[in-house]
Amino acid sequence: MKTTIRKIGNHVEETVTIGAWLANKRSSGKIAFLQLRDGTGFIQGVAVKAEIGEEKFKEAKELTQESSLYITGVVRADDRAPSGYELSVTDFSIIHEAKDYPITPKEHGTEFLMDHRHLWLRSKKQHAIMVIRNEIIRATYEFFNKEGFVKVDPPILTGSSAEGTTNLFHTKYFDEDAYLSQSGQLYMEAAAMALNKVFSFGPTFRAEKSKTRRHLIEFWMIEPEMAFMDHEDSLELQETYVSYVVQSVLKECSQELVSLERDTAQLEKIKAPFPRISYDDAVTFLQKEGYEFSWGEDFGAPHETAIAESFDKPVFITNYPKDIKAFYMKPHPEREDVVLCADLIAPEGYGEIIGGSQRIDDEELLRQRYDEHSLSVEAYQWYLDLRKYGSVPHSGFGLGLERTVAWIAGIEHVRETIPFPRLLNRLYP
Ligand code: 4AD
């Protein structure tokens, strides 16, 4: 019977065949321990000389790392095995013999591993991260579908910027200038006026010159946008959504979290509501902590970490100064100098995972912002139209997938949270 490692528990004491690669091996005079992986999981195969015969045993001992095999054996339940099962090998055939696989079980430097990203993805750690990434995406679709959201796909090639012009990726669109999308938000606002509650999930691009553990050039964002929802409604949705995703990963990816040695006690605590601190109070806090920081500046990573350290859940920093935020954010009704926005900062130093706000819904005010930000009315006329024809209060946010994966999986650098990271100095492989 053909099966996969993931489903092998359904076949205890039965003989099964799996297609697999040899991740690693150890052998003594009489037994060969074959670490097998098939993409759905990892399992140890045990080949005993007395059982498979001298010739097959010799072949097993000579198997090379990453050779592909069909391997047959009897499934044994084994509490000591990380997966709970072992395979008593009865036979195998080599599909393809790999020679000199470059990533050996010894330690390798990061640059070497990044150069071999196409192979590094096969490692147990990278496998676990990709499975968790997938679970976050799956739980996201499940959550928003349950909440009545419609998935909408905004364009990637755009004629205008959503998040300022400093990190735009420029390209030609035949004879016109075009940019790779920094955020689908403006289009999602149009979609919300057509479909009420919408969300997108797609790649976004920022020509960031920052070389930090939190920045990618190409990253994936989940961007919900909701008609008739104000800033407060949006914060409640964000904390419910993030809690849902964390609890889904805890439930569905327990093996992966163990193999990554993630402290799951930290994740168990992630349940709505989340604490909130205003920008004003955050500034006072930082000053008390001895940081040289004045009102009106934007937080850097050390500031965010210092603020987040006071909490064991993600914390919303709300109502930032208008001058350091995007043009489309709605002013606070009682304070002209701050806007109805929040960044959600993950605990344990993983930084900002969400940026969101209530959007300006008044045509005149938006025109004024166009002037202040030197945005051409022609390029943004369609966005103004949303305030012209049945404008409504609306809010939305963007969650950065890779930073969220880094936090939940407990990974130091975002480069390991996306299959093929695009970094400041890396477009290969
Ligand atoms: O705060 P940002 O810039 O918000 C927006 O783009 C809004 N238009 C979203 C919206 O309201 N629809 O980015 C949102 C999130 C950040 O919190 C962060 O998690 C992630 O996107 N992010 C990055 N992730 C990796 N590398 C980068 N260079 C990132 N820049 C932003």
Automatic annotation (TrEMBL):
> Which CDD domains does the entry mention?
AsnRS_cyto_like_N, AsxRS_core
Under which main EC class is this enzyme filed? ligase
* Any one Gene Ontology cellular component term annotated for this protein: cytoplasm
Alphabetical UniProt keywords: Aminoacyl-tRNA synthetase, ATP-binding, Cytoplasm, Ligase, Nucleotide-binding, Protein biosynthesis
* EC number(s) from the headed UniProt entry: 6.1.1.22
Q: Which GO terms describe its biological process?
A: asparaginyl-tRNA aminoacylation
Q: Which GO terms describe its molecular function?
A: asparagine-tRNA ligase activity; ATP binding; catalytic activity, acting on a protein; nucleic acid binding; transferase activity
Question: What PANTHER family does this protein map onto?
Answer: ASPARAGINE--TRNA LIGASE, MITOCHONDRIAL-RELATED, ASPARTYL/LYSYL-TRNA SYNTHETASE
Protein name (Swiss-Prot/TrEMBL): Asparagine--tRNA ligase
Classification lineage: Bacteria, Bacillati, Bacillota, Bacilli, Bacillales
